[in-house]
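#structure-requests
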Amino acid sequence: MACQVKKITVLGSTGSIGVSTLDVVARHPDQFQIFALTANGNVEVMVQQVRALSPRYAVMSDEHAAAQLRERLKDIGSSTEVLGGEAALAQVAEHTDVDYVMAAIVGAAGLLPTLAAVRAGKRILLANKEALVMCGGLFMEAVQQSGAELLPIDSEHNAIYQCLPAKHRQGLASIGVRKLILTASGGPFRDKALAEFEHITPQQACAHPNWSMGQKISVDSATMMNKGLELIEACWLFNCSHDQVDVLVHRQSVIHSMVEYTDGSVLAQMGNPDMRIPIAYGLSWPQRIDSGVSSLNLAEIAQLDFEPLDHARFPCLSLAASAIAAGGTVPVALNAANEVAVAAFLEERLSYTGIYRLVDRVLQQYQQQAATSVELVMAEDQRARQMANSLL
């Protein structure tokens, strides 16, 4: 009996995760079909994707970009319907015809459409870590109430998910787990002299040694704020406290993360550093499909290196640990301030070391609230951004 073709909405289809998702989907046309593609303003790439895939909807959150796309698709005779504005993102995420939603919009902009998909009971392939950083308690409560399936796509959380038994939401102690170990490559500056950090350029920060990613996440990887956000995300995904999560520098990015059990066993998930592996896992779970990634050749790699994290080199990780420990809306402020700081750094209005200093100053001045509603979270996000911009 043939399996039903699953219809997919890709939130953030023109970014690196979105492009990798489309690559995996294209390998299995008998199993998956693209229902909707969304982006912010990259009209050129969206035109190419629509031409190749003919989705029912193409959404541009930027209204001007939507108007441009509408004209371009009209010229080529495409039947794809173009929608514009942020509300349209939620519309194609929660649509009754959709089975799976790839949540790959970077930053706070991905929160509301991802939540819409959760509340509609979809399978969520979560690549937007900010949704859990900002709104973890409310988000996981919505998953439980709606019956949505949540599959983490970040390589680290996907690795942990693969190494844990199905009932991990009951708490780590109940399944015999001592701790979770997130691995980190150390980024492009793991060996750079600290005295040179003040002069790091955006181009240098975006040149990751192991992964091909967008600018924002590349800078977060360089500062290790990315690992801090992942720590917060892990706490919500796996129902644990921040002191049950360790971070270990692993330069080769072959072991994507590990789980240590109380009997001393350590389970690790390994693979080449290619996001198509966790994407394929999320699409096919509980089965497995071809991701298009070549086999891991351990003999060729020859050795795997590990070292403790240097907190003087990567102080942003400590900020994130403090934020999740404080709770409430403090992680919201952390994320908002970091987004402002990274944007300013990429525009060369802030130094590389200024990213940490700006986020730290915002958190020192920020007065936390209880995260009681999505509306309050979004309001606090804006308040923290205003604080960050004023401090700039």
